[in-house]
Design a protein that fits this description.
The protein is an alpha+beta fold. About 40% of the residues lie in helices and about 10% in strands. It contains 38 helices and 21 strands. The chain has a 5-stranded mixed sheet with strand order 8-9-7-10-11, with helices on one face. It has a 5-stranded antiparallel sheet with strand order 16-13-18-19-21, with no helix packed on it. Strand 14 and strand 15 form a beta hairpin. It is found in: Membrane. Its main location: membrane. GO terms for molecular function: guanyl-nucleotide exchange factor activity; small GTPase binding. Keywords: Guanine-nucleotide releasing factor, Membrane, Repeat.
């Protein structure tokens, strides 16, 4: 009752709107099964005088109460009470709501609506229906069966026939709600956002005055999720008594009725940060925080918009949308094609698919042509007259529904075309699998995501964690053959198989390149065929065995139905005679039909694959002679080699970027494709090469077989470059579950180490194993082609790939660290306890204690990415806490990348600048000779810093080595390096810390500026730039300086300079004076203050005292030139690594 009439009884008068209102609802049972309800609410006159009198009394009481509230000076004129005085028993007619409801096991919404509307029409018309209402209701309940899959059924209503059709087992599941209403109410953009929220299992609350809108939007969104299914709380119409369900801390999709007066601000909804609120009536959607964008959103919106425009629906939506079947003005673009439903396809009225196969029409057409009459002037009959059995609006609703659903389904087919290879199949029986389900992983998410385009990752990484996706994969695991598969999974897998078969010889790159849906016409034709030729007609309504006097009714009032004639069904019609055995025979027949459809589709897909082009054409299957087979395999080998050549060239051109285009190695349009996508496509190619000609087809690459064979040679001294070690590293990564995922991770690792060609050559060098695994015609047994294949892969060594480090960001990586002290002053007596902290582009380590006796440590942590900085220091304990460090070496034990962090400085109190810790900037090491033991073959990103650092000892005899011209050039080069850094694509940028703090970086260049012409007050005293800056700070903060009248800009600059100086000096880190200078320069570059500080210091009296007259800082022309160069940094947003600013609160 609460779902049929969610608001309960309502009363109205003749002045109120009383049009019948239709809505549907859903009943979910405890076992998860669903039934659909369809209700028509209308109003009947109240004939009881007692009820009318009671209603008038209630109105009087209500008006009196409202009068007391509103009878105030500010209440306004008495007209404001008019709405309460709306019923007078002497002049008004009172009406009460009544509802008729029809329950069905499947959602035939349009058919059920017609049945209810015709029943209501029977009691409101002036003429009684041909038969009592019980006859029509009995017919619907007991004599109208469900249409079989892929068939249509026609049955009789009270006044007109009703047609319902059901998709076949190879089509998308039944869905009968008008999608056009949803897009008109919300618009494409809002629908797609709501769709994304549903996929990511956010809490969704629909809000509308109309119950049918709530149901239509909810059912539409869940239907568009195909092949996935909503797994959580689903209440499209939430009764008022159950509104406490909104407090549930779980994902839900609910519909809340609005009375049309309360706005969004009056709703008290919990957990709003995780809620998607949809105000359907006002075309408004409130999205949860941090909602990722659906993949290829712009192209997806464009394709949906084109489909809507073809049916006359604006993509932005329209507020004037009724709750009924949409009035689609035109479902085809009038500029492109005519209305082929009327037979006017391609300009000819006889090209309709319903007529083109008719031999009589063909003969008439030929006869007319011989008479010279133009066929273009022939006008065909309407749809109804040419055989279409349903109304035009109903047909167009079906066609638009299937077009939109096919577009949505195509997105998932393309995105998850290879999902099956990442499914982790269980070796347990079903009972054990169910009992251990929570502890098991069913999908290799890390490997799947590593193959996806980068723009897809924010959405996909979250979607793979949902219960929706997990349930989909679970159903895949539990269905070992097609007979066990659910209908949804079977349809989806069939479509995936078709995509694979069409792309088996020319696979598309996994890029964000959008691929439109191509099977819309096939789906539309299936619907048109069903509504053109009715497969089944149900029994007509007939007189029932009713007593005299039964079946009468009073016009305007729905009668009390005779329960005795409706309580049981008939015993003698053809539908009731079906026994249980017949029911199983029907299932067997349908299963055979499914198998036949599958075989037909297989043959059709083969035909489509054959027509892709001469280079990939398959032979006629009727000619399977040995010569034809050999020729076909040879063409396949040639095609694989050609594809390998094209793919390697494409990847090299993309990696080299614009420089390659300028050199004539490609076109500009080829750039911009994600590196991750190109490598994933290379893995596709390698998989197909590895599987070609296998004796026994398997999913994996048989690398394990090669590994076991190669283990026999481990008695030899281990190689620094070891195929076996690389494979063991991959085996130890727990995040990768499947063989395909491990093979792809191994390819990425080998490419990053520039060893892919070498490793594959080693694998293929075992001819005995190759002959055992592969047939003679296999690609890997064609010697010439195999050599060319390895040669093409060798070209990848010309560029740097970090495709393993950048993709597997969460795996645990072992790192080996060696601190190298100075050989002359190595500190064999060093007593303090050293420590180290390593930072990379992805994360940083905690502080790691280094054994002082070995100065070497191996640790394991989450992937740090490319290493950028190292913080090294000691605790200043013991008698001799002075340590001269030459450099720090860090090696990634998986990729082999070795980073060198030069130091060349003392760490200790009372020596050098008194620093107990230093921040070192490093980069990749390049071996100087091919004969050296190769720890890493990857060239460095830039030149490595030298080991001679900034030990500044000023004495009368020491002079700066650089003149003013050289210093200007150094500053210009440092700034130019930063500018180039920001003008590169973000993925191609090197380390900004190296440009700031490395050799010839900005810190070094500004250090030369301040060292030029620097004086010393006493002999043999170490004076640092930081000493000068501290004296300048004291001068700016002196009372005398504050009393001087200076312009506002000067005070602001001085205040900022002193504030940053205090912050750096107050840091708890013992980074020494040079370390503090480095930190100040980095902060000034970040906040674009360096040029202000240079201008301020050049005019400071302390500069006159501490610098010679020829110093660069005292030359106004050179200072102005320096300021102009530093102002260039204002155009860039400089973000510093945490290691450079640790301990600073600014």
């Amino acid at each position: 009752m609460s779902l049929c009439m969610p608001k309960g009884l309502s009363f109205r008068t003749q002045a109120d709107p009383r049009e019948p209102q239709f809505h549907s609802f859903i009943i979910t049972r405890e076992d998860g099964s669903r039934s659909y309800g369809f209700a028509l609410t209308f109003y009947e006159e109240v004939t009881s005088k007692q009820i009318c009198s009671a209603m008038q009394t209630l109105y009087h009481m209500h008006n009196a109460e409202q009068y007391d509230i509103l009878h105030m000076p500010s209440a306004g004129p008495p007209a404001s009470l008019q709405r309460f005085n709306s019923y007078d028993i002497t002049r008004d007619t009172l009406y009460v709501s009544k509802c008729i409801c029809l329950l069905a096991p499947m959602a035939f919404q349009q058919a059920c609506r017609k049945v209810l509307e015709q029943l209501h029409q029977a009691i409101t018309s002036s003429q009684p229906p041909p038969l009592p209402l019980e006859s029509y209701i009995f017919n619907v309940l007991y004599e109208v069966p469900l249409p079989p899959a892929g068939r249509s059924l026609k049955f009789s209503g009270v006044y007109s026939p009703v047609v319902c059709q059901r998709p076949s087992t190879s089509e998308l599941p039944l869905f009968d709600f008008p999608l056009s209403d949803v897009f008109q109410l919300l618009g494409v953009e809002n629908v797609l956002q709501l769709f994304t929220c549903a996929l990511l299992e956010f809490q969704i609350l629909l809000y509308s005055q109309h119950y049918q809108r709530l149901m239509t939007v909810a059912e539409s969104i869940t239907a568009l999720m195909f092949p996935f299914q909503w797994q959580h709380v689903y209440v499209p119409i939430l009764p008022a008594s159950l509104q406490h369900f909104l407090d549930a801390p779980v994902p839900y999709l609910m519909g809340l009725h609005s009375n049309g007066q309360d706005d969004r601000s009056k709703l008290e909804l919990p957990q709003e940060a995780n809620l998607c609120f949809v105000d359907i009536d006002n075309h408004f959607i409130e999205l949860p925080e941090d909602l990722p964008q659906f993949p290829s959103k712009l192209e997806f919106v464009q394709e949906i918009s084109e489909a809507l425009l073809a049916f006359g629906i604006p993509p932005e939506g329209s507020s004037c949308c009724g709750d009924g079947v949409p009035k689609l003005t035109g479902f085809r673009s009038c500029d492109e094609v005519s209305d082929r439903r009327n037979g006017n396809l391609a300009g000819s009225p006889f090209n309709s698919f319903r007529l083109k196969d008719n031999e009589t029409i063909a003969r008439l057409q030929a006869l007319v042509k011989r008479t010279g009459i133009s066929l273009e002037k022939v006008t065909l009959l309407s749809n109804r007259e040419t055989g279409v059995q349903c109304e035009e609006d109903e047909l167009q609703t079906h066609l638009l529904n299937v077009r939109l659903r096919e577009i949505f389904a195509n997105r998932f087919t393309q995105m998850f075309a290879d999902y099956e290879v990442f499914v982790i199949q269980s070796n347990q029986d079903k009972d054990s699998w169910f009992s251990n389900r929570d502890q098991m992983q069913n999908f290799d998410k890390a490997s799947f995501l590593s193959d996806q385009p980068e723009p897809y990752l924010p959405f996909l990484s979250r979607f793979l964690e949902t219960q929706t996706f997990a349930s989909f994969i679970d159903s895949k695991i539990l269905c070992h053959d097609d007979e066990d598969k659910e209908h949804t999974l079977q349809v989806f897998d069939t479509r995936v198989d078709k995509v694979r078969m069409l792309n088996v010889r020319t696979p598309t790159l996994r890029t964000s390149m959008y691929q439109k849906c191509t099977n819309i016409d096939e789906s539309e034709k299936a619907i048109e065929m069903r509504v053109s030729k009715i497969d089944h007609t149900a029994l007509h309504p007939h007189l029932l065995d009713m007593k005299i006097g039964q079946g009468r009714y009073e016009p305007g009032f729905f009668p009390r139905l005779q329960s005795d004639v409706l309580s049981s069904g008939p015993t003698g019609n053809k539908w009731a005679k079906r026994s249980t055995a017949a029911h199983w025979r029907l299932r067997d027949k349908q299963r055979q039909h499914v198998e036949q459809l599958y075989l037909d589709n297989e043959q059709k897909h083969i035909q489509e694959a054959r027509s892709l082009g001469a280079s990939i054409r398959q032979p006629n299957l009727s000619n399977l002679s040995p010569s034809v087979i050999a020729q076909t395999n040879w063409k396949f080998v040639e095609g694989l080699l050609k594809e390998c050549r094209n793919k390697t060239k494409r990847m090299l051109v993309e990696k080299m970027g614009r420089e390659a285009v300028e050199l004539g190695h490609g076109e500009g349009s080829i750039t911009g494709v994600e590196e991750n996508t190109l490598i994933a496509s290379l893995c596709d190619l390698l998989e197909r090469i590895w599987s070609h000609g296998l004796q026994v087809k398997q999913v994996n690459w048989h690398l394990e077989a090669f590994r076991r064979k190669s283990d026999a040679g481990l008695a030899l001294p281990p190689l620094k470059v070891s195929l076996i070690e690389d494979m063991r590293h991959i085996q130890n990564i727990g995040e990768i579950k499947t063989d395909v995922g491990k093979a792809r991770a191994w390819v990425r690792l080998s490419m990053e180490k520039k060893l892919l060609s070498r490793h594959l050559k080693q694998l293929l060098s075992d001819e005995e194993l190759t002959k055992k695994l592969y047939k003679r015609y296999a690609f890997l047994r064609c010697d010439d082609e195999k050599e060319q294949f390895l040669y093409h892969l060798l070209s990848f060594n010309a560029v740097d790939y970090f495709c393993f480090t950048s993709v597997f960001t969460t795996v645990l990586i072992p790192y080996h660290v060696v601190v190298i002290p100075s050989k002359k002053l190595g500190g064999s007596m060093f007593t303090a306890n050293p420590w180290i902290c390593i930072s990379g582009e992805l994360s940083e380590t905690v502080v790691l204690q280094v054994p002082k006796n070995s100065l070497e440590i191996t640790f394991e942590c989450q992937n740090l990415g490319k290493l950028t900085t190292v913080q090294v220091g000691h605790d200043n304990s013991g008698l001799y806490a002075k340590w001269l460090v030459e450099c720090v070496m860090v090696r990634n034990e998986v990729t082999g990348h070795t980073y060198k962090f030069p130091c060349g400085r003392w760490l200790g109190k009372g020596v050098d600048d008194g620093s107990l810790e230093r921040i070192l900037v490093g980069e990749l090491v390049t071996p100087t000779s091919e004969n050296e033991e190769r720890l890493c073959r990857t060239p460095p990103m830039q030149q490595s810093p030298s080991m001679i650092r900034r030990l500044v000892t000023i004495s009368p005899s020491s002079k700066p080595k650089l003149n003013t011209g050289q210093i200007q050039e150094a500053v210009g080069e440092a700034i130019n390096g930063i500018v180039k850094h920001f003008h590169k694509p973000e993925k191609e940028r090197s380390s900004l810390s190296l440009l700031l703090c490395g050799e010839y970086g900005l810190v070094w260049a500004l250090e030369q500026v301040f060292l030029h012409g620097f004086r010393t007050p006493r002999l043999f005293k170490n004076v640092f730039i930081w000493d000068f800056l501290e004296r300048a700070q004291a001068h700016f903060e002196s009372p005398e300086q504050r009393e001087l009248e200076q312009d506002e800009n000067w005070h602001t600059r001085a205040h900022d300079f002193c504030r940053f100086m205090r912050a750096v000096n107050s840091t708890p880190r013992n980074i020494g004076k040079d370390g503090k200078f480095q930190m100040l320069v980095c902060l000034g570059a970040r906040d674009h203050l360096l040029h202000h500080w240079i201008a301020l210091l050049s005019e400071c009296p302390i500069t006159v005292q501490m610098y010679e007259d020829t110093a660069m800082i005292k030359d106004r022309v050179l200072v102005n030139s320096l300021i102009r160069v530093l102002q260039t940094l204002q155009d860039f947003n400089i973000t510093l690594e945490a290691s450079l600013t640790k301990g600073i609160g600014i």
